[in-house]
Amino acid sequence: VHEPFILLTVDEADKTALRYWNQSGRKPNIIMRTSSIEAVRSMVANGSGVAILSDLVYRPWSLEGLRIETVLLMDHVPAMNV
Q1: CB 3.0–4.6 Å: which of 45, 47, 55, 78 could bond 66 by disulfide?
Q2: The whole model's pTM is what?
Q3: What is the pLDDT of residues 19-46, one digit of tens each?
């Protein structure tokens, strides 16, 4: 909740991420909303913020060649319907 949050808006990603936040009773510090998965990856890799993404869109590197770290959440993340 204290980290800048980058919200992916493509498909159901934003609704799923916001359901996660709603069930936790916390509000994310959304600094950017984008439909570009590559923009999210780039911003996370550059340390500009964090994101909650589906395993389907995960890659360990950004287009700039920077490492993207993953952290498993202790709380349950709702499933995304596609």
Answers
A1: 45
A2: 0.82
A3: 888 888 889 999 999 999 999 999 999 9
